[in-house]
Amino acid sequence: MNASTETKACDTCHCDFTLAFLILRGWLAVRAIFTGLEKFGTYQSVAVPVIDPSTGQPDASGVMMNINVKHYALANYSGIPASLKEKFSHEPLLPHPLLAAFDHVLGPALIVSGLMLLLGLGTRISLFVQGLIYIALTIGLILIKQDDGISWLGIHVALVAFALTLAKHNKIAILKKW
Questions:
Q1: Structure pTM?
Q2: Whole-angstrom distance, CA of residue 140 vs CA of residue 138
Q3: Which among 102, 98, 83 is positioned nearest to 149, based on CA atoms?
Q4: What are the extents of the domains in the chain?
Q5: Is residue 167 a contact partner of residue 123, using CB atoms and an 8 Å limit?
Q6: Longest dimension (CA), the chain
Q7: Of 8, 27, 37, 124, which one has the fewest beta carbons inside 10 Å?
Q8: Residues 77, 81, 83, 86, CA torsion sign
């Protein structure tokens, strides 16, 4: 193999690492952004008239049917689901003020770190923040014995760690150093 062939092979290798990092960066960013946005969503029951299939018009008898419609609003925000808040409230290792602060910060932290990662604005910092968030979530799930969730979060931590190892191949970023 001559020097030019080795250089071309190395360039291809670095290109592969760059593409791998971009895919992983995109997935982790989208995951964080939409998980954070979902903290602002809730379902509301809405009554709608039953439609007569033959005419396409509302049923003449006035029968109504309830359907669930998803709405997003700041007023809907809940960082920690209500079902888990109840479990956490009985855990002595999670003081209420700490739990309340985490509840308020979780959604916005996911959205901000996801947007930073997507844009390449402080990629390493945003990956590190996401890793810390997933570790904090893991601690909570360990305390309430939610082993399935712990496994999923372990996979997220591994993906973040892998992305950090590939960060040196980050070619498309606003702040490459961070």
A1: 0.80
A2: 5
A3: 83
A4: 16-39+79-173, 41-76
A5: yes
A6: 84
A7: 8
A8: negative
